[in-house]
Design brief:
It is built from 2 helices and no strands. The chain has helices at 2-22, 50-68.
């Protein structure tokens, strides 16, 4: 009788622990408040300089030439 009661308590504890652990979730976005907007604003991009564009083009050409081989 006492062993049965211990098993019931143990099963109940396992079920409660799994329900509590299952309710946890992670949201990588910051929390919103009622007065905040409904969307997130992304920062404006930066236009690369001529040197950066030339370097990117050279890297792209080197990569494409490697793929052709």
């Amino acid at each position: 009788m006492k062993a049965t009661i211990k098993i019931v308590y143990l099963c109940t504890a396992i079920v409660v622990a799994s329900l509590l652990a299952g309710g946890c979730s992670y949201n990588e976005l910051p929390p919103k408040t009622d007065d905040a907007t409904t969307t997130y604003t992304l920062p404006k991009g930066v236009i690369p300089t001529a040197d950066e564009s030339a370097e990117a083009k050279a890297i792209r050409e080197e990569y494409n030439n490697y793929l052709v081989q």
